[in-house]
Structure formats: C-alpha cells, structure tokens
# Entry
Amino acid sequence: MHPVTRAALAVAGGALLLVGVALLVLPGPGMLLVLGGLVVLSRAVPAVARFEEPVRVRAMQAVEASVASRWRIAGSVLAGLALIAAGVVAGARLVPGLPFSGWSTGSSLILSGCLLLGLLVWSHRRVHGGGSTTEDRT
# Structure
C-alpha cells in the first residue's frame, strides 16, 4: 500500500475512532463509529484488526438493544428530532447569547440527529426486518 494511502486511512480511521469514543458518552451511535474507525484503521495498521471482532459483537448487541422496545425507539426518535431542532436553533441564532451558536455548531447537531435517525432505521430493519436469517430457519 502506498504510504500516502496508508496515512490517509490512519487519519480517517483515527478520527472515526475518536468521534466514536466521544459518542459513547454523548448521544449518538458510539459503538458503530468505533467499529467503523477500527475497520478503516486496520487497513492502514493490520495489527488493529484483532480488535475488530470483539467490538463488532458489542456493537451488534448495542444495535439490538437500541430497538428492543417501543419506548427505546421512541426515545431515540425524540433524541434525534431534538438534535435536529437544537441544530436549527443554534444555526439560526434564535436564542441570543447562546454560546457557540452559528451554522458550524448547528450543522453538526443536524448531522448528528440525521445520523442517529438513519442508524435507528438501519438497526430496526436489521433486527426486526422481514428477511430470513439462519436463526429463523432453525
């Protein structure tokens, strides 16, 4: 692999990993981003690949838990909509004196809300979808 490609993958994987770690305590799909960061980073640093499977198992458990009940789904949808609304409020500077207001903050909140809703749909389809799996056949 070309050194520039390896460096770009390392930077992208590291960034995804750091954002994922931050989202473990903030609202968002932290485990999935940690997994994505490890997958990308392992392309640049093959030794990182050994951490993928344990994180993949934990991420899929988190996916299943996120759509385990209607209350969790409703809470996640409300959190996503709240992030989008907060992004519009921050971006349009609707609250005077709000720290860090502006479209840089607003757009990141809107993106986080959309990402949360998109991953919620993906999680719901993966767990409750109509597709046949090997577990269904046994």
In short: The first helix runs from residue 3 to 23. The helical segments are 3-23, 30-44, 52-66, 70-92, 103-128, 134-137. Residues 132-138 have pLDDT under 50 and may be disordered.
